[in-house]
Structure formats: structure tokens, C-alpha cells
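Components:
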Amino acid sequence: MTDCYKFEKRLSDFLEESLSTNEKESFERHLGKCAKCRKKSEQVQVLRNTLSALPRHKTSPSFDTVLRSNIRREIINNGSVFRFPKINFVWQLPVFAAAAILFIAVGILIDQAFIRNNQLSPIASANKIILEPQTSRTLDTPSPHKTFQESLKITNYVMDRSRSRSLERRDRKRGYNQSLQVKGNTDFHPNDARSFPSQTNFRATTASVRF
Amino acid sequence: MTKQPIQNKPPTDEDLILRFQNDDFAAFDLIVHRYKDQLLNFAYRFLGNTEEAEDVVQETFLRLYRKKHAYRQIAKFSTWIYTITGNLAKTELRKRKRRKLVSISDMGFEEKEYEIEDLRANTERDADEFLKEKIIQKAIDELPTGFRQVIVLRDIQELSYEEVGKILKIPLGTVKSRVNRARLKLQAKLKDIVDENMIRR
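Structure:
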């Protein structure tokens, strides 16, 4: 049974004849019985005709002139002498972003691979230049710098020390100075971050810029 | 006017935009000529205000000029340009709402365009038709935005359901049910006019 609600819901489909034969027959049967729906369907049909017969509004006669002057202004404002290459940012921006992420990821992976193979990574070997004269190691001893973080700590420590004499003096007073200058087995080993003097200022910002 | 060789068929919209993308400005003029009036009618029926509609269509073509390369061959050109006009019209509506907070009087029959166009309505029948159009337009203006968009595109601009769906980026089923509901709403609002038209028919 088709009720009025159902009919109303599919009224446009009925008027535009996009119903299946079954549905159409059932709606027609309903229309035969229900005067209210019959009237409504006629009204909506007339409404459709009325809407499509509404007068078409047109642009004003000055439309083209105004458009031309708008475009001229546009050209002047943007400067037609030099034009940026036409980049469609909608699709190119994500591509740039992906490329940047890939670049960083590959960098990290390479560095990690060096570290895993117990070799000095490019970053760590840069640190080595500074560290080598102070922590004399034989060539066959494995790198003490297990992670980048540790090597960074050491670098910063050494840099701070070399830069600031007052710090060195303070360290000497506290008895830390030997740990880096004495060769061979000492109480300090760069591998062990815990043996670092805890009161020294570590500056994390300078390292990457320096190398 | 155009430098194109004589063809049996006029160039398609897609041909024209392609030519314009290759800096053929005559093609741009042809596009403007083809679309300015239908876009204006669309914007006018959606906004209910001639001046705003004209601004919207101006801006549409300005955007087309500025961003001609944003158009890709995958979409139908008409869908693309209707989408631009539709979005601009919606923005205009939001702007107007903000303005409305200040002035409430500029609605309905007291618009200045009424006085200008009134001169044309010299016979009684013309005046009658003119008034009727105003009432219908007012009823359309009172529909919620979503309903207004679909009914203007479908029943006034007479586009296909598929095209309406693509322009508004809504699924076909939603377009159909929305059009149906918009018609019922409008029919309820315009009962008198519709009944009168039924008798005349």
C-alpha cells in the first residue's frame, strides 16, 4: 500500500518518470484514490513549469566594459612584466612536503645504519675531529659514541670547555679536568654519559650549526 | 570575429578554455559571452539581488582569468564555472548576513530596482507578471541555502541532477531528495500563485 507520505517523498521521481513500472503503477493507483495527493502532484508540476518559465535575467550593458577594466587593473596590480611560473599548489604542495619528509627520513636511516654498524656516522665523525686529541683511543677500539645524543653531549661539553676558560678553571677546581685530559683508563669514559660532570652547562643548540 | 577556421560545429567550452590556457584571449571573450547571462540568472535567483549577482559574475570571470590553469580537463567546464559562481554567491550571502546585523530594511519589495523596472510594466498583465515574479523570488530567497541552490540549478537553470550533484559536490541521491523537498516547500509557500496558474492552464 502506498501512503501519502511515501508518495510525497517520491513525487519528483514520479513527475520526472524515473520510477520502476511497479512503483509507477502503485503510485497511479494511489492517485486514483487520493484527491489530496492528486492535487499536490498537479501543483508541483505547475510550480516546475512556472519556475522554468521565469524571465531570464541578463547582465547589464556595461558588464563587458567593467570586466575589461577589472582585468586591466588586475594586470597592473600583478605586474605583467615578470610572472611567476604557474604552479598549481593544490597538488604540488603535498608533493613538496612528501619529498621533504622522505629526504629527512633517508638521512636518519643512513645515520642509524652507520651507528648500528658501530662506525662513526657522518655526524659523529665530525665530532671525532674535536674529540680525538682529547680522548686518545686506539684505532681498533669501538667507537664510544653509541648514539648521536651521546656524541652531542660530548661535543657540547668539549666545545663549552674550549670556549670558556672560566668554566675550565671552575672545572679544574672541582677536579673534573683530568677526566678528559688523562689518557688511557680513567674514571671518565666518554661512552658512559653518567660519568659526566652534572653541573656543566650543555648547550644543545650549537652542535648542528657548527658542522 | 574568431580566427578559427570555419567548422560545422562551434567550439566546445573545453576547446575554448584550452585555447585560453594557451593565451588566446579571443577564446576568453567567447567564454564570457557564452556564460555571462546564464551565470547572472543563476546568481540572481540564488541571491535575489541584481547588483550582488552582477558582482559575483564579474568576480567569477576575473577568477577564470586569474586561475585559468586551475581548470583540468577531467571536469566539464560548465560544472567548474558554475561551482565558482555558486561558491562566490554563498560567500556573498554570508557577507550580507553580516551586513544585515546593521540594517534590516533592504529586503522584499522596496528594492530600488523595483522602481526602475516598474516603468517597463506598463500594461496590467505585465505588472501582474512582474509582481508574481517578485513573490516567487521572495519565496525562493526564504528557502534554506541548501534547498535554494538545488532548486535554482535544477528547475530554473534546468541542469541535470548529475550536473547539480557535481557542481555542489553532493551525492545524486541527496540532490534528488533535496530537490523534491525544495519543491514541496516552495509549493506550500506559493499555493496562491500556483493555483492561479493551474486555472489559467
